Amino acid sequence: MKTFLAKKETVDPKWLLIDAAGVPLGRLAVKAANIIRGRHKPSYTPSVDTGDYVIVINAEKVALTGKKEVQNEYMFFSGFVGGESYRKVSLMRERHPEFIIEHAVKGMLPKNRIAVRMLKKLRVFAGETHTHEANNPQKITV
């Protein structure tokens, strides 16, 4: 019996929809990262992007347990001396709630060139509406 290795031409990606309201951030990020990588498919091949597209709605309502809302910080660096700045999760939730989910999913993807293409398959929206109705996304639970 031969081992099946997927090729870029044979991959048929689907569109999946995840509602983030009340879902813990880590569980949501693991689920989204595995779908983007294609780990849920029997034709998964690590060196080929076999994953599906993921749409996440209600990013502003994602749940964080414990004191993470006040204690955790995101670090940004401008590239200049002394250009390091920190922002709390609560501030990011107010200004740019999509960043919280994008950052968590990015950390769970492999650190290589394929991950850059995989991350483009993640679409995060702060509210209920999204712009991908024409793709007929299938709703899944986390």
Task: Characterise the protein shown here.
With 142 residues, the protein is an alpha/beta fold. The protein has a domain of 84 residues: Ribosomal protein L13 (Ribosomal Protein L13p, Chain: A). Helices cover 30% and strands 18% of the residues. It is built from five helices and six strands; from the N terminus they run βαβαββαααββ. It has a four-stranded parallel beta sheet with strand order 5-2-1-6, covered by helices on one side. α1 links the parallel β1 and β2. The longest helix is centred in the first third of the chain and has 13 residues. It is globular, with a radius of gyration of 17 Å. The N and C termini lie far apart (35 Å). 23% of the residues are buried. The model has no long low-confidence stretch (mean pLDDT 95).
Helix-strand layout with pairing:
Elements: E1 15-19, H1 25-37, E2 53-57, H2 68-71, E3 73-77, E4 84-88, H3 89-95, H4 97-107, H5 113-119, E5 122-124, E6 138-140
Helix pairs in contact: 1-4, 3-4
What is the beta-strand fraction?
A: 15-25%
Radius of gyration from CA coordinates? 17 Å
What's the total helix number? 5
CATH C-level class of the domain at 14-64 and 97-129 is Alpha Beta
Which term fits the overall shape? Answer: globular
What is the β-strand count?
6
CATH superfamily membership of the domain at 14-64 and 97-129: Ribosomal protein L13
Give the termini distance in whole angstroms.
35 Å
CATH structural architecture of the domain at 14-64 and 97-129: Alpha-Beta Complex
In terms of quaternary structure, the protein is: single chain
Q: In this structure, how is the largest beta sheet organized?
A: 4 strands, parallel
Helix proportion: 25-40%
Low-pLDDT residue spans: none
Q: Mean pLDDT, as a whole number?
A: 95
CATH topology (fold) name of the domain at 14-64 and 97-129: Ribosomal Protein L13p, Chain: A
